């Protein structure tokens, strides 16, 4: 599994940096964002070091499907209210123009009672 020793999220996967986990399996880790901007704000990442959505190809379809499938389940577990009154936002910042700061692919899952919308 690819790993970048200088990557902050690879360090979280390796347990070198602590995180508040919400899910872990062989391929995927989900943990609370350290600077939440909504009542619910966690990140879903692949354990392997994939830089961004710009690197995603057909070989990643199953992994991406697994990450997307986890999002609604974890969102409810973390306190998002059910659809349609509740719901959540999934955001994947990609590259400089996409506002990506950490260059290890991550899905933001954001929700909870409004107002919290940013951008
Ligand atoms: P980006 O701007 O790359 O889409 O989002 C990166 C996110 O990672 C930010 O929301 C930031 O708060 C979060 N983050 C950065 N460093 C850490 C960390 O060490 N631990 C956790 N839990 N989140 C982090
Ligand atoms: Zn990484």
Structure notes:
- It is a single chain.
- The protein contains two helices and five strands.
- The chain is an alpha+beta fold.
- The protein has a single domain, classed as HIT-like (HIT family, subunit A), CATH 3.30.428.10.
- Strand 2 and strand 3 form a beta hairpin.
- The mean pLDDT is 96.
- The site of guanosine-5'-monophosphate has 13 residues, from strand 2.
- This is Histidine triad (HIT) protein.
- It comes from Hylemonella gracilis ATCC 19624.
CATH topology: HIT family, subunit A
Bound molecules: guanosine-5'-monophosphate, zinc ion
Per DSSP, what share of the residues sits in E-state strands of 2 or more residues?
15-25%
How is the main sheet built?
A: 5 strands, antiparallel
CATH architecture assignment name: 2-Layer Sandwich
| Mean of all residue-level pLDDT scores | 96
How many strands in all? Answer: 5
Give the neighbour order of strands across the main sheet. 1-2-3-5-4
Q: Would you list the SSEs in sequence order as H and E?
A: HEEEHEE
CATH homology-level superfamily? HIT-like
Top-tier CATH class: Alpha Beta
| Integer tally of domains | 1
Terminal Cα span: 34 Å
Radius of gyration: 14 Å
Task: Give a quick summary of the entry.
It comes from Hylemonella gracilis ATCC 19624. This protein has helices at residues 8-14, 61-77; strands at 21-24, 28-32, 40-46, 88-91, 107-111. It contains 2 helices and 5 strands; from the N terminus they run αβββαββ.
């Amino acid at each position: 599994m690819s790993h970048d020793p200088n990557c902050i999220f690879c360090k979280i996967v390796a347990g070198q940096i602590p995180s508040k986990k919400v899910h872990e399996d062989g391929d995927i880790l989900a943990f609370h964002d350290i600077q939440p901007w909504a009542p619910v704000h966690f990140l879903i990442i692949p354990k392997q070091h994939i830089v961004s959505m710009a690197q995603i190809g057909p070989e990643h379809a199953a992994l991406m499907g697994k990450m997307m499938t986890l999002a609604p389940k974890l969102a409810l577990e973390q306190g998002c209210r059910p659809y349609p009154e509740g719901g959540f936002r999934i955001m994947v910042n990609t590259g400089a123009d996409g506002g990506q700061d950490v260059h290890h692919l991550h899905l933001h899952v954001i929700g909870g009672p409004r107002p919290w919308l940013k951008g």
